[in-house]
Every structure is written in C-alpha cells, then in structure tokens.
Amino acid sequence: MLFAVHGTAPFGWERDAVQWSGSHRPGAARVAASLVTSFGSALVPYAAVIGAGLLTARRVPAGPRRLLVALAPLGWLGAGQLLRTLIMHGSGRPRPPASGWAVSASGFSFPSGHTFTSATAFGLLAWAVSRHLAATGRPPATRRRWAAVLLGLAALVGLSRVYLAVHWPLDVLGGWLLAAGWLALGALLARRIPWWPSGRPRRAGTDGP
Q: Given CA atoms 123, 129, 130, 135 in this order, what sign does their dihedral have?
C-alpha cells in the first residue's frame, strides 16, 4: 500500500538508515554482520527446516504420513519462496546504491529474501521445537527460551541486511511480515489435518518405533 501511494523510491528515513550503517561499519562489525547474514541463505535455513520436519515426524507412526510430515516444512519454505519471488518481481523495487554494499547482492529489493528465508526457516524450527518440548513435558519457560533464541537469530539476519546496505528497512519489514503470515497460514493448515502431530504429551502406544 505504501508503494502504491508513494512509489518504490526509498523514504528519507530509509536513506538515513543505510547511510548511517555505511559510516558505522568497522572491519570487525562488518565481518560479524556478514556471518550473521549468511544464516539467511545457502545451507543453514534449509538445514533448519529439515530439522523441523524430522523432529515433528518423530511423533508420527512409520509410513507415508511420517514422510509427508518430515518433508512438509521444506515444501512450505519452498512454496513461500515462490510467493516471495512473485512479490519481488511485482514490486520491482531497486536496491540501495551498489557503491555502499558490504556484501554482494542480486535481484530486486522488496521483500528481503534473506529476511524472509531466515524468519520462515527458524520460525518453523521454533514451532517444531516448542511442540516437541511440550509433548515431552518440558516447562513453558524452556520453550520460550528456545523460541527467543531462534527468532532472535532471524531478527539479526534481517537487521544485518540494512547494516550491510543491501536492503532498505522496508524490505526487511516486508520480509518479516510475509514470513509471519506464511507461518500463520502453515500452522492453521496443520491444525486442520487430523493426523498431524500435536504438542500434547505422549500417550503409551501412540508413537511409532
């Protein structure tokens, strides 16, 4: 809606944020931010969703359904990536000037791919870990700590994209909002599947080998 009214050009406060990042980026901070941002691409987020699937599938009896549950988070992330790509090409928002980039980047700017990927992947893993801990009788405080760590890491990935000057702040916000909506839709669909494993404590005879 903002782009429809304002256009895809950056707001003044977005330019200020990117310029501030460029002037407050010593070598050590740049290296740290580059490491953090790497958690939003390549193997890390996909390993996270595979882990989420395997952890959830442990509560499903052996058979085709277990395989479906194990692959569901990976498929959901992949479907989300298709949606994000459509939105990205639909908006066609340019990135910040390449002269200020601290890492390489490609494609349009909105929504941030690293932000969406990390938030979706670590969100799925946080959901799987929380339900597993609940099913094994762990206290809510333990579940909240795990969720805070995983979602905090996703938040840092998004912030690193602005700090490294490859995205405008609204790109990151768009990635977070898209991931939140995609996760909420996935949770809603999972609850409508009768045989999807719940977070309730285990009962004897309900688990597979």
A: positive
